[in-house]
């Protein structure tokens, strides 16, 4: 009788331990998934913010400046065209991010998706800075070199174009580098989370 009771107690203990282990695994998965989702949300939010800011500048801010200042039509078109082209990678990244589904996709699928995103981001980083800076230089040349209403003498115009161009490249590099580092931190969190979640996949 004592042996039977001992077996029953042992089986009950095994069952409780098994249930406890299942609960612990589920909690760990939820914690990892939540951390991964938080990093993803921050990246998504940053891209949405960039899209909204660009649309506001394209559709409201710069047109307002153009209609209320003596900026030439050529200068206006240069900046608008550069910013519209700059929207392409932002929209592309948002389309990729919209497919990110922790509950509905396997970790390998999500990792492949994030790899595509990183490639687009890397291309945007390289070409985006170049495009913006070159557009601004073209804007300075257009305004200071050919816009007669500015009233600058030749020497002053050349110095302004050179100085503003160097300043634009420096600011573009610094801002892009800060954003890139912050972005890299969030990407590492997502990649680490997906790697950990893969261990718990059925």
List keywords for this structure.
202 residues, 4 helices, elongated, mainly alpha
Task: Describe how the helices and strands are arranged.
Elements: H1 2-68, H2 73-97, H3 107-146, H4 154-198
Helix pairs in contact: 1-2, 1-4, 2-3, 3-4
What does this protein structure show overall?
This protein is mostly helical and 202 residues long. Helices cover 88% and strands 0% of the residues. Helix 1 packs antiparallel against helix 2 (73-97) and helix 1 (2-68) packs antiparallel against helix 4. The protein is elongated and about 105 Å long. The chain starts with a helix and ends with a helix. The model has no long low-confidence stretch (mean pLDDT 78).
Brief sketch in words of this structure:
With 202 residues, the chain is mainly α.
Percent of residues in beta strands? under 5%
Which radius of gyration do the C-alpha atoms yield?
27 Å
Largest sheet, if any? none
H-E order: HHHH
Contiguous runs where pLDDT drops below 50 for at least 5 residues: none
């Amino acid at each position: 009788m004592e042996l039977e009771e001992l077996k029953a107690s042992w089986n009950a203990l095994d069952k409780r331990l098994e249930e406890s282990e299942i609960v612990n695994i589920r909690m760990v998965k939820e914690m990892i998934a939540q951390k991964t989702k938080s990093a993803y949300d921050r990246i998504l939010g940053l891209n949405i913010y960039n899209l909204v800011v660009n649309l506001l500048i394209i559709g409201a801010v710069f047109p307002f400046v153009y209609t209320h200042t003596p900026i030439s039509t050529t200068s206006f078109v240069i900046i608008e065209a550069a910013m519209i082209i700059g929207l392409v990678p932002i929209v592309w990244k948002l389309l990729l991010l919209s497919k990110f589904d922790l509950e509905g996709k396997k970790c390998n699928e999500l990792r492949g998706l994030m790899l595509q995103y990183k490639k687009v981001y890397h291309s945007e980083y390289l070409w985006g800075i170049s495009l913006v800076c070159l557009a601004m230089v073209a804007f300075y040349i257009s305004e200071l070199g050919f816009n007669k209403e500015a009233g600058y003498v030749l020497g002053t115009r050349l110095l302004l174009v050179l100085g503003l161009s160097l300043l634009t490249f420096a600011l573009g590099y610094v801002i892009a580098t800060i954003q890139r580092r912050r972005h890299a931190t969030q990407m590492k969190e997502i990649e680490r989370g997906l790697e950990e979640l893969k261990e718990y996949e059925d």
